[in-house]
Amino acid sequence: MTLTIDGKEVTAREDMTVLEAARKAGIHIPTLCYHQQLKPYGACRICSVEVETKGRVRVVASCGYPVEQGLVVRTRSPRIDRIRKVLIELIAPTVMVNGNVSGEIKKIATEYGADIHRFEPQFRGKSTRCILCGQCVRYCEEVVGEHAIGFVGRGIDRRVVFFPDKARSCIICQACLNLCPTGKIPAETDFVVFDNFSLDDYVSGTL
Amino acid sequence: MVGKRLSSPQELEQLRKHILSRRHTEQTVITVCTGTACQTYGSLHVFQALTEEIKRQGLAASVVTAKPTGCHGFCEKGPVIVIFPQEICYVKVKLADVPEIVSKTLAQGEIIDRLLYLDPVTGQKIARDPEIPFYKNQMRLLLGNNRYINPRDIEDYIALGGYHALCKALFQMTPEQVLQEIKKSNLRGRGGGGFPTGIKWETTRNAPGEPKYVIVNCDEGDPGAYMDRSLMEGNPHSVLEGLIIGAYAIGSHQGFIYVRQEYPIACENTVEAIKQAEEYGLLGENILGSGFDFSVKIHCGAGAFVSGESTALMSAIEGKVGEPKMKYIHTAVSGIKGKPSCLNNVETWATVPLIINKGAEWFASIGTERSKGTKIFSLVGKVNNTGLVEVPMGMTLRRLIYDIGGGIPGGKKFKAVQTGGPSGGVIPEQYLDTPIDFDELTRLGSMMGSGGMVVMDEDTCMVDTARFFINFCCEESCGKCIPCREGLRILREILTAICEGRGRDEDIEAIEEIARVMQDASLCALGTTAANPVLTTLRYFRSEYEAHIKEKRCPARACKRLTSYYIVPEKCTACMICLRNCPTGAIHGAKNIVHWIEQEKCIKCNTCFEVCPPRFHAVTRISGEPLPPPPSPNTPVLRQKRGE
Questions:
Q1: Is residue A148 domain-resident?
Q2: Which of A90, B130, B132, B457 is most buried when burial is the number of CB atoms within 10 A of its CB?
Q3: What's this model's pTM, rounded to 2 decimal places?
Q4: CB B547, CB A109: distance < 8 Å
Q5: Is A158 within 8 Å of B493 when comparing Cβ atoms?
Q6: Whether residue B446 is found in the same domain as residue B469
Q7: How many CB pairs under 8 A join A and B?
Q8: Cα separation, A150 vs A137, whole angstroms
């Protein structure tokens, strides 16, 4: 089927998402939680694009939105640019290390003119260096077939933790180390702790 | 149990006649509301005492019986009891009143004046509950039966013609006809979104894939809203009947009822209702001999606001974490385990039997052009008659708040009404004549929502209100997507700072920018609507934000950090009331000596302001202006208590 992305006619397979169709056509859409081998997750919302169907314009996450015949997609617009800018400004304090951000987040911040210090005064949490993209959790579950790593907590208390009874194979696997877009896991994970880690430690605040 | 099983509509009708024949028409039935609100007032004890007292005074069961029922709606006045057939209504009944009720009213038909409802407007006592303005101005199609029914007894529901609509659907209509009837009625989903129910049903019916599921959403979580709970608790069979009819129309043989765990009575009554419906052959295989099979499982939620979102709720039913997923393919097509799943709110399902019984045209004749039927609201906040209110669509907010709600207590001025809970918005006074309608409320920046209606008076700060709802969503957000998680975190901080006098000029712009990004980019409806309370308060009460930021003043004098308490020496009569009630001993003075507040000790609990007799009005709240100095020590009172 064919659709229009940024004025360019693009052909796509029926089972593709807008993001996949765009990438295939060489159109860049930034992402933070997307991974080729994993099911669409839609958590970072950086890949938001405008789609037009039946004259109605909506913002959707391109990583999860299925292609449609005749769909009109805009990957850049004042509205989309503002979304990406504000999202980076909102997430920046969480991943700030020595007053700066790095990697993909830094690249997007520069491109969209995000002020990474904008919401620093209002940010009262700890800089965890984790944006909760869930790539590690999902890779472990969907590709490796383990559930050694997962989420606990809700809202701003949401965290990624290793589950001790499952994490013994981690020393061999270590797949999540290379996935982590902020470098938190390689920087902070001492595989020795896996044996000692327990959920109780997390709940009591010692971890 | 085999004997109870009904295998045809005729047997159901016979049973209904049999139940009615067992009941003597002259029998006095005293019903005690045992909904959650009345239970907290001790209605279960009242019920128990009534039963014992009736026995003790030797009134025969054929003459008088007592019955526990679900919520009547007038929660402000609980425990509420109604005596049939006269429909005598007693409010705020205490244990001590029980012997008198039995000896006078039940035995001799004498009305106890003291227990009647007093209409504050006319000053008249009202004996019969249909004449109480709170009830009189409602249209109680769904809630009305709560006052007759013992929710643990299916025969009470059958006696009132219950499951008649199911018979009609199964034996006189094809599934397609049932579907068309619902479509024709223009019923729209009561859970908040207002999506046309018939179209949703049709989508699931036509979607490829088997099995198909039907689900009741009873994960009501809006602050102050409890209409779904009251229906589920008080009349579970009406929801069940609607669900079975829906399943028949859609072609589903498995249903789920998702009830939040915080509603223990609703959970228990639903379990009991399912059990009884199975015993009577109204659920399970070959329902009423029609050949249609349908069974229902109950799922008690683990307690999260976000689990009411359709994809999250379905994940929870699958046994996973109740967290939303992207739904560019609707759950009506791909829901539980990827199968077509039709999710409707409690109230929506309970409306279905009414439509089947009385017809789509009857239903569509009630309401406005695009919003049909009645809607239940939980009317709470600064309003005289709090409780559950069912009104036809199209009634104005003003009639609901003043004619049914009895207006604002204490002669205060109305300021705004919050509809739609944390996803809705505030509506100010100039729009009070807006008819209640899905689209009208959306146009004002609010929404119908599931039916929470919080009334606010002049003492309510709109910035603080926005902060309250943002804080609620911040705690209830699942944390999966960035705009919702981080947006709410920062919004909460900004709003808290403004309420505490730390607001900056650029804050309003930041709030609006974050709010717009949350609306555009959040993963689920919790995030896309969470900013509505902020945006509507900004739209209608922007000056209040500016007063907080620029003048460090709270116009409603509600934000503690910006408000001080002061006793006007000229007005103080040294009555000692505030002094005695102050929890921190911050008020000084003595008999005949003017009282004054030691500001350092004051925790701004508002107690002195509330207890100061209105005729003195000596305690005042000051915000945004310098505090006058306290009177010199031992100033004698200037104003006399009597004679002025």
A1: yes
A2: A90
A3: 0.92
A4: no
A5: no
A6: no
A7: 103
A8: 5
Running DSSP on this structure, what letter comes out for residue B211?
S
Angle between helices B482-499 and B507-521 in degrees, nearest 10 = 160
Which of A91, A94, A122, A132 is the mutation pick for testing B, counting most B CBs within 10 A? A122
Secondary structure E strands in B220-268: 254-260
Domain around B443: 374-457
A155 chain-B contacts, CB cut-off 8 A = 474-479, 485, 488
- Classified as helix, coil or strand, B246 is helix
What pLDDT, in 10s, does the model give residues B84-110?
A: 989 999 999 999 999 999 999 998 889
At A207, the amino acid letter reads L
Q: How far apart are CA B644 and CA B641, in angstroms?
A: 6
CB nearest to B489's CB, from A45, A131, A156: A156
Residue range of the domain that includes A112: 79-122
Sole residue written with tokens 């000056």 = B543
| Domain end point (choices B136, B170, B188) | B136
Selected residue of B307, B490, B512, B514 to mutate for chain A interface (largest A Cβ count, 10 A): B490
Mean pLDDT for the stretch of residues A86-100: 94
How much is the ipTM here?
A: 0.93
Residues B245 and B329 in one domain: yes
Q: Which of B475, B486, B516 sits opposite A90 (nearest CB)?
A: B486
A100-117: pLDDT as tens digits: 998 999 999 999 999 999
CATH number of the domain to which B73 belongs = 3.40.30.10
Q: Are residues A84 and A57 in the same domain?
A: no
What are the CA-CA distances from residue B308 to residues B169, B225, B633 (Å)? 29, 14, 59
Same domain as A97, residue A69: no
**Helix residue ranges, H only, B345-456:** 346-358, 360-364, 397-398, 438-443
Give one DSSP letter per residue of B2-48, joined into a string. GGG---SHHHHHHHHHHHHHHS-TT-EEEEEE-SHHHHHTTHHHHHH
Residues A125, B497: C-beta atoms closer than 8 Å? no
What single-letter DSSP state applies at residue B77?
Answer: G
Instruction: Say yes or no for a CB contact (<8 Å) between B523 and A65.
Output: no
Write down how long chain B is: 644
CA A100 to chain centroid: 19
Which one, of B409, B349, B58, B355, lies nearest residue B177 by Cα?
Answer: B355
Contact A90 B514 (CB under 8 A): yes
